[in-house]
Queue: 3 jobs
Job 1
Amino acid sequence: MDTQQETPRIVAGVDGSPSSQAALGWAVRYAGLVGGKVEAVTAWEVPGEASWSAPAVDATFDEEDAERRPVEEVRTVLGEDGASLVHERLVHGHPVEVLVDAAKGADMLVVGSRGRGGFRRALLGSVSQQVALHASCPVTIVRPIEADR
C-alpha cells in the first residue's frame, strides 16, 4: 500500500487584474497551509482571433511580451521569494477552456471574481462563472482587497 500522498496542486488563474492578484495571493497562502504547490496559469489569445467582430490580427499584440507578463505579475504580487514557490504557465486559448483543462487533477482552482474585461458592476466575471460550473475540482473565487464599487 502506498502511504505517500501527492503534494496538493493549486491552480491560480492570472490575468493582471486586481482580482487575479488577490487570487494568486490567496492561492499561495492556501498552498502554504496544506503543503501544496501553486501553478499560475495565464491564457492568451490574439485579440480578435475568436470573434468575427474584430480583425484576426492585432498589430499591437506582442507574443514575447505576453510570455513575460505572468512571470512579472507573480513577482510583483509575491516578491522574489514568494515567486520561487510558483510555477508560471502561459497557454494559448480561451481562458475558460485553459483554466478548466489546467485544473484537471488539481486539488483547487483559484480565480479572481472579475478579470480585465466585462462589466465593472458585475459581481462575477464570465470566466469565474464558467470555471465554477465546469471545473472538475473545487473552485475558489476571490474578490480584490479593495473591491471596485
Job 2
Amino acid sequence: MTLEPIAPERALELYLDHRRNEVAVQTLQSHRSRLRYFVGWCHDQNIENLNNLTGRTLYEYRIWRRNDGDLSKVSEKTQMVTIRVFIKFLESIDAVDPDLHTKVQLPILSASDAVRTEMLDAERAEQVLTYLEMYRYASVRHVILTLAWRTAMRRGAMYALDVHDYDSEEQYIQTVHRKDTGIPLNNQESGERYVALSDEMCELLDDWLADQRPDVTDDAGREPLLASKQGRLHHSTIQHIIYEVTRPCFYTDGCPHDRDVETCEATNRNSVSRCPSSRSPHVRRGAITYWLSEDVPERVVSDRANVSPDVIEKHYDQRGERDKMEQRRGFLDNI
C-alpha cells in the first residue's frame, strides 16, 4: 500500500476531530495533552513525516516519556495506550504501516501497581466541610466539595450539571448526557441517573442558587449549576478547587509537613496540587470506601456512584481485609 505523508501536528488535529463526537470533553482533553508530548518529541527527533514510524521508534518514545516525566508504571501505561489508539487511527487513514499499533509495547502491571490507594478519608472530609460551612457557607467551594463527597460524582458530571437538573422539592439532582451541546458525560447515556439529596444538601444548593451563584449562561445558552462570573466552571477549575480546600493549611492553622505557610509553593494559586496532603482525584474513592465501611449495600453504592461492583472492588474499596471481616461479623452473630 502507498502511505500518504502527514506531519505530526496534522495527524493530531485529525485524530482529535475523529474522537470529538465519541468521547467526553475531559477524555478528549486528556488525549490532546498526552499526544502533545509525542508531537514535541517527533520534532526533537526530526520526524516530520509519520510514515516513517516503526516499532523501534515508538519504543524509544516510550523510554523517553517514562524517564522525562518520571512516570509510574500506571501512568506510563496510560500514556502508551493513548499512543496505541492514536497509531491505530493513523493506520485507518493510510498514514503509517498496517498493524503498527500492535508494536506499541505496554508495561505489564502487577495487581498492586494497578490499584491506587490514595484517598480523602472521612475524618478529613468532615473537617474541611465543617470549615467551609462555618467560614465559606454556600460558596462555590462549599458546593463543589459537598457534591463530591456526598454523591461521589465525577468531576465531568459536576461540570455538566445545569440549574434545572436540580429539583429542590423532590430533593434530587439528575445527571444528563448532552452530546449535542458539547457537555457529554464520561459514561455517556449509561452515566445518566437520579441522585437523591439530603435536607442539608438541598438547603445548601438552595442558598447557593439564591445568594451566591452568578447569573450567567454558558456558550450554548444553558445555565450551569457550578458557575463563576465567566460562565460554566471548567473541569480543571473544579479539580483545582478540591486540591485547594483539602490542603491542611486551608482548614487548619498549621502544616503537617513542617512547611512555612507564608513561603510554601503549594499556597500559590497555580501550585495547590503540590501540597502532599491535597486530594483532588481521590475524593470519590474516599467517599465510596466510607459508604462501604458504614455498611451501605454495595448495590446502592454502585448505583449512586455510577460504577460497577467489579470496579468498586478493584479500584475504589480501600477497606482492609480484616476490616471487611469485622463488618461481616456483625451480620453473622446468630449463625
Job 3
Amino acid sequence: MLYYLGIAPSTELRLAGLENAGTPHVVEDLNYWLEDTATRHPAIIAAREQWKAAQAEVKVARAEGLPTIDLVGNFYQNVYSNQGLQAIRSNTTAVGITLTIPLFDGFSNTYKVRRAQAQAEQSESQLHDTDQQVLTDVIRARAEAVGAAGKLQAAEELLRAARSAVASSQRRYDKGAADILELLSVQSALADAQLERDRGVAEWESDRLKLLAAAGALDRSEIGDHAF
C-alpha cells in the first residue's frame, strides 16, 4: 500500500488524534475501582442521601408522639402581664416549664411512623439496587478495558516485529539478496500491523472512557490521573 501511495516504506501510518495514545499499563486493581465507585459515584451518593433523609423522617415521626417539655421565660419592666403600668419602677422575670403529653390521637401518629418506616425501607432497597447495578457495570467495563489493553499490547508487539521485518528485507533487497515481491510482502504486513495497532488504540480509548463513565469519574478533574 505504501508503494502505491508513493510513500517511503519506513513511514509509520497513524490515525489522527492517536499519536499520543501510547501503550496502556495494567488497569487498576478491581478492588480499587469497586471501593472508589462505592464511595464517589453520584448515583450511589444520591441514593445513600435519600436513605439517610428517610431515616431522619422516621425519627421525626416518632418524636412527634413523645411528651415534650418547653421552657418559657419573660422579662417585664414597670409592668406585669395582664396588668397596667405600675406607679413604681420594677423589674420582673418569669420562668415557666410546659409539659405536653400526647393523649389518644386516633393512631394517626402510629400510621405516620409506619409510613415513614416503609419509605425508609424502600429507600434502603433502592440504595442496594443502585449499588449493585453500578458495581456490576464497573466490573463489566473493567473486564472490557483489560481485554482492550491486552489486545493493544499484542498489536504493539506485532507492529514492532513487522517494522523489524521491513528493515531486514530492505537491507536484503539493497544487497540483491531479496526480490521486490518479498519487499512488497513485508511492507504490506507492516501496513496491516499499523492498522491493527490503530484499531487497538481506538478500542482501548473507547473502553477506557466506558470504565470511567461506569465509575462516575468522567466529570472529575482527575480523569487523566487514573493509572492505566
